[in-house]
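Standup notes
- DV: blocked on the single-chain target, sequence here:
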Amino acid sequence: MSFDAVIIGGGINGLVAASVLARGGKKVCLLEQSGHLGGLAAPGPDGGARMAHLLYNLSPLVRREIGMDAHKWPFKLTPVSTVALNPDGPHVVIRGQKAQLADGSAHPEAEAYRQLNGQLIRYADILRGLAEGGPLGIEGRLSSISGLKELWRLGRIGRKLKRIDKSEMRRFLQMLLSNAYDLILDDLKDGPLAGMMAADAVRGGFAGPRSPGTVFSLIYRMGHGGEVTWPEGGMGAVVTAFEGAAQKAGVDIRLNAGVARILLAGDRVRAVETTGGDVIETKTVLSSTGALRTAHMAGVDAFDIEAARRLRNIRVKGTVAKINLTLTKPVSVAGLTDDMCPARLVLAPTAEYVERAFNPAKYRQMSEAPVIEALRIDAQTFSLMVQYAPVDLDGGWTDAAKDKLRAVTLSALAPYLPGLEDAVAQAEVITPDQIEAETGAPGGHWHHAEMALDQLLTLRPANGMGRYAMGPEGLYLCGAGAHPGGDLMGLAGRNAARAALEVGK
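- DV (later): unblocked, structure below
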């Protein structure tokens, strides 16, 4: 059997890449090692949010290019407010750019927050132009279609930059290279509002808010206006929609079909061999797993020495564990009315708290005062993101270590959710090593690689491999480890497929 292209991995990026290629006239086969699609977005048995639980940056460009309705997603996206939990007073409720106290009174820093958040969103709109295509740079002749398209994109970004005056341009350039801690505390006092922003700047990364480049990570999360959304029907509805688009485009989707090897003829792809022993002939492979794992599938000797060294040195230490709680009875958030509770609850009392939470991870220890993002799915179900829980925990993620993480998490939430510890009927603890084993995300990292300044744009995943093609001819990286990264937005898959189509012309 033979196909024009084979996609490795059925997460959101893999499904998008398959759809774009199929709609571009290619015969495409998608291989997924597990018995279900979705990767980190895959729902649990009840359709709930087993790993990822919220959507930030779903790209309308992706929606259009995979053939979904031109005006809306086929599932309803509900904006989710954020509550910054406060141990010393009323919680802070954030809706869009508006911050107020949970008791209904005005937040003393509401205007300062509105201005800072609005500025970050404006800068994010500029960077969004960088995400909706390969890293900037014109390859080939300007007279070619691809060269003209790239020139047009450069011009569009340039027009946005031109609208910024000189003083704000200096501020923009300074911010991109800064750490989130200093930026936030320049404008806000250190408290729950500052802590919430600091937590958003480092979520998923092996970094604290004082780490260089964390402002970029914060801006990155605001790529489409900074809105946090919940898909009606849960992540199951999202995965079903992307699967439907791929099937409609004619993609041959195969589950329980892992890839053992990418077979080469000389320096180019000729086939893939599945773990079941099947050989599928193809001249093009797009991999949505990690860059190093992809290289091992093809054989590291297919890469030159420097490329192999760079691949081995990609920083990719996952730090987020997922805990899914099922309760015997409803538990309310102290200080919040019922209408405020369908919200993203962030436990990060101060920016300093977030920095201190990161310190143990440097020494392969879990934080005993963790940063937590909690979402109440329904009255008796909570979805928790717990940071920092390093993938390389000293001693490994044994059952005892998981029990400790569960206890630490429940203890941290207890002051805000009275009766929580006694109400837990079941707690599923999913650690980064398990995330890696189940989804192929290297290091259990939500972005497949650190979103650091030296691992972005043309340096993502590594220098010399920033335009999706890597190593042997016909091999591409289409997962979150490629530009522009993760957050389930699908752009890495779309961009990689576009790069492969351009070569095929």
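- Follow-up: The mean pLDDT is 89.
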